[in-house]
Amino acid sequence: MKIILNLFLLFIGTNVQTWAVSVVPTKPVVCGQCDPGKCPMTSDKECLAGLSLDACGCCQVCAQRERELCDHPDAPSAKKYGSCGENLQCRIRPEVKTHQEALCECNDQIELCGSDGKTYRNYCHLMESAKLAKAEQQPIIKVYKRKPCDSPPEITVPPVNVVNQTGSNVFLTCEVAGVPLPVVEWIYQPSAGKTIVYPTDDDRISTLVRGGPNAHVLTSWLQIQTLQNTDQGVYTCIATNALGKAEKTAYVQVETRRDL
């Protein structure tokens, strides 16, 4: 009888323990009475996206900035990120397949030119810079025009030196940026002889220009087919628009192929 009683108590104890472990209630958020005097101090320099109320709806805290995680009803999370700031909207990221996640995105995605002469990717980017400038007592930044600021050409990816054998194909690449979009040409300066400006009617040496990878950026290529000794020399990529000119050079060295 004593053995049976012990087994029964062991059975009951095991099940009670299992129930206690598996059913753990979630601790609710306790807000209590709102006391604004106990709220943390915030500043424009800290809260560039503006202010929002905390989870209890009592204190003003820094709102989430552009591209920061945010609380969305369709993306539940154990961690509370907060609400998006001014001119921002919390949107689900469709590219994330493993779980649902939301980011703050600006409602106005048009590139802008600021009164400081800088181009901003959107209105929210400009407003953050404006708040920071105000907090640091710098000149006020406003929208100058709803398009990128005019800028002289800049060669962001210059051509590089090449060493190759006769009979090979050679590519030189030049990526440029500017507003208005620059015009690109190539100049060849041989070790001895006349300077040549490409493109020309030469079918063996050609140029190609394509927009991208970003707006106000284009990429130009110079292709030399069936490399010859006379192709050795300096090749210059020149980008020009109404505001100026930029140029970068590369040297093509030709080695005579020795067939075994």
UniProtKB/TrEMBL annotation:
- GO MF entry, a single one: insulin-like growth factor binding
**Chain ranges of the Ig-like domain:** 153-253
Pfam families attached here?
Answer: I-set, IGFBP, Kazal_2
Where is the protein localized?
Secreted
Q: What is its main location?
A: secreted
Q: Which residues form the Kazal-like domain?
A: 85-151
Q: Name one GO cellular component term.
A: extracellular region
Q: Where is the signal peptide?
A: 1-20
Entry's InterPro entries? Growth_fac_rcpt_cys_sf, Ig-like_dom, Ig-like_dom_sf, Ig-like_fold, Ig_I-set, Ig_sub, Ig_sub2, IGFBP-like
Q: Which residues form the IGFBP N-terminal domain?
A: 27-107
Keyword set, alphabetical order: Disulfide bond, Immunoglobulin domain, Secreted, Signal
- Stored SMART domains: IB (SM00121), IG (SM00409), IGc2 (SM00408), KAZAL (SM00280)
Biological process GO annotation list? regulation of cell growth; regulation of signal transduction
UniProt-listed PANTHER family: INSULIN-LIKE GROWTH FACTOR BINDING PROTEIN-RELATED (PTHR14186), INSULIN-LIKE GROWTH FACTOR-BINDING PROTEIN 7 (PTHR14186:SF19)
Instruction: Quote the protein name from its UniProt record.
Output: IGFBP-related protein 1
Species for this entry: Didymodactylos carnosus
